[in-house]
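Fold this complex.
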Amino acid sequence: MTQTQTETIAAGASEVVAAVLYGKKDMRIETKVIQPPASNELQVVVSETGICGSDLHYYHHGRNGDFALRHPLSLGHESAGVVTAVGSAVSDFKVGDRVALEVGIPCSECKRCKKGRYNLCPAMRFRSSCKTAPHFDGTLVQKVNHPAKWCHKVPAAVKDLSLAALVEPLAVSLQGIKRSEMTPEDEATVLVLGAGAVGLLTAFAAKKRGGAKEVVIADISAQRVSFAVENGFADQGIVLSGSKPADVDNPLAPAITSANYLKEKAGADDGFDVVFECTGVQICVQTSVFAAGAGAKVVLIGMGTPIQTFAIGSAATREVDIIGVFRYAGNYPDALAIVAEDGDTVGKLVTHRMKLQDAVDAFEIASTPVDKDGNLVLKVMITE
Amino acid sequence: MARDTNLSCLLYGPGKVRFVDRQVPSIEDPHDILIRISYVGVCGSDAHFWTHGGVMRKVSEEEPLVMGHEASGIVHSVGPAVTSVVPGDRVAVEPGFPCRRCKQCKAGRYNICPDMKFAADPPGNHGTLARFFRIPEDFAYKIPDSLSLQEAVLVEPLSVAVHGVRTAMLAPGQSVLVQGSGTIGLLAATTAKAFGARAVFIADINNAKLDFAKTFVGCDTFVPDLTSTPYEEAARFKKEMDLEDGVDVILECTGVESSVQTGLYASAAGGVLVQIGLGKADLTLPILAMCEKETVLKTAWRYAPGDYEVALELLKSGKISVKPLISSTVSFENAPEAWEKTRKGEGIKNIIEGVQDEHDV
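Structure:
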């Protein structure tokens, strides 16, 4: 045992600051005690945590769809930090290592885990989620103990730990690319619906890894669409109008109109080869099917209303596959490689940085599309 | 750390109080919830405990008890099967937990369950004067935004009043005499008005209390002369209030023998007296006069199914406001001060703040 390991294990419990959600719109900064890491764990000082839509949902509503807060809980799951203590059975990490945290811990033994689809493990425990109870605290805490198996070393070329924190949503995008089965040989024309953090990263990944010939991104926010094109996330941007009158006789008419508009502006008369749906909004899901060409794929990354209406006939009779995506499995190493190479582009997503003490303010800012100065809000990072 | 402590106020005997950090209750039944207590009201029974160590059963050094049963709070955590509340919800607490299996419970009369576990009832039923209090989810009632957590403390006594009025089966247009102008009497009188009584009268030996009733309830008042007899006082009451036949409903909220007798004499033929207030264990009643008039004597004990809901609806609709009844608030560590005030008859409802958070960050 090295000197450093002996010292850190003997250090004992310590007090840490945490942001804890007690109910909707009731998040408090308080201290709690953290024990030394277990033999298979690392203790990590959390340097950067990005705020996700699910965090915002828990904050504003005390629930995320069917999952309701059952007891006080720390949110946050898009994190990276620095190892400050190493469990006795861990040999491949040392104090000072920079790590990205993969916060979903599967059982590793069931059929799905063994097949590599651990994101679907029935016994999955995901930090900051209220899906299972008792809940597993998120990363909006100064330090966390996390299994070393689910910590990923950050390559030296990654300039900033906020990039390592972006690896979490980037891993979601990469899962979408993987599930689409698109390859550079396809020279695909890709449509991404939604230019939020996940839409932007998916558009980027569609080119970087999917080898798309052309990536078109669409959103109702002109500001976001411009951002996407100006900063190298997509080749073309199209602004869609926000609300459309519902037609009782033909409820899908607005989606058909949008799809035709997108195809025309993008010069994709035959439809898009892959559509990445990154909003979860029903009309966008409907539009995805109409915008997809025959034999194409619609990849559902965005999570919205759980029960929706869409043109199943249009999809089935044209062999348009609808593919679901849930979090990520095995995508962290590739995501880290991408931020090591293209950190300058990806890093542009971080529009706001605030300290853990100001977590409530950070959540309020993250809840708006533009801040009070009119600047775009994309990814708000909470730093230590 | 602050999160893991459960500072509680326990009584060990008459005049003997101690503040102890007990274990935070854990959620065992999937339908249980943990509430962070915001305020606790003081009842006449609390004052009795403070001076006598208990009413029917007493506390002791060996079996001390956490006090308090009129409480409001904020839901802290919920068991896996809970669907009616989520953490952060503001709630009023119904503090008595029946067995749910016996004949009375199954008949819907859970307030008289022989195995009732009522907060601050010795031995062993710890009350609400603690940081955290655990209850089954169906004994927490979400309060409207318009009701403060301090006011929510009064939902419990209001439910007692509602139970009394519903036991009387008060119909619109009937006349009501409320005896006693304390918290329960005031709430019974104002509930009777909300239930459509054509006339409400309130009686008390204390003029100051009656003055308050005049504005709070908006009713006629009567001061019984204790040197006279119940029969004569009932006759005088009927004459002064121009009630030839007497009153249809009497809500007896004092438990005092002479008051009960007066109420029975004041009842109209076929009238109902509901005994809500508690006093001596045995009383003498004018049974012959009751038989002649077929007077109905009913008793009311705490609150039964639906009473809390009716109380909350009365508050939500604005038909009743309990804010004027709150006379004082003391901090948690000064709970005995609130008990003393109530014992001395100072104020109407004195309330105690829940344990405050330590601001360590």
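Chain A is about 30% helix and 25% strand.
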